[in-house]
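Session log. Operator J.P. requested a structure for one protein chain; no other inputs attached. Running the standard single-chain path with token output.
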Amino acid sequence: MKTEECETILKLKLSAHKRSLFSAISAHKKGNFICPIVPLQITMANVLKQQKSLNAAFKKRAGVGLLCAVIGVIIIIFFTQLGIVGAISIILGIALIRKGHKFHVGAVGESRVAKVLASFPDDWFIINDMIVGRSQIDHIVVSPVGVYTIETKNYKGTIYGNAKKQKWSQVINHHKTAFYSPVKQGIVHSVALSKFLEESGLKNVWVNTIVVFTEPSVNLKVFSPKVPVIPLSELREFFKKQKQVMNSGYSTKIATCVSRLIPA
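Structure written below.
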């Protein structure tokens, strides 16, 4: 699809939302709004792409893992002389299932963020699970208050981190697990998106970075003065506090540019 056609579609979609809202208000003022049971439709953000890759990864690994485990059991039962092979097959299957579960946990977290983002105004554009260059970005937000990439983590326990350090830690019941800094990960994604926009002719577009932890019980003990690291419960309020930095026309142009990367 050509850039001009894509931009036209996005503009028509925005116009359709506004016409529907205006018609409903006009009908109500004229006394023709005779269906009080049906509420006025609330405009929603334009979601250009949903999350798919983590769900696909979960299904693939869980399916293969289950198959390996079943084959291992069959080998042990019917081919006792190959018991070691059967045991290895079961262990491999369990490992794959556990790996798949991690993808499932990630998909749940991203779905929670996507649901909140979808409720924003109709001149906002949301692109979930987008690959830009070598970066796989959880969420891209293009709106009058700016362009953002969101790195999502669905972790429990207490999170200790410093934006300047590469390793953060998750502590659950005194058990510590290290993981790579989501702030540094998110900044890399924002740089990749900024570079793509510049190469596409949209220069001087600042791409902001946010890190969101989606597990309600998570306890964040993080020092990150420049990149917001927040629980999901604060995401909506965070965006409400941001000031407008561009008009809807320019944000539509940016969204159109990014949408060219969406697979057909």
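Operator note: Residues 83-118 form the longest helix (36 residues).
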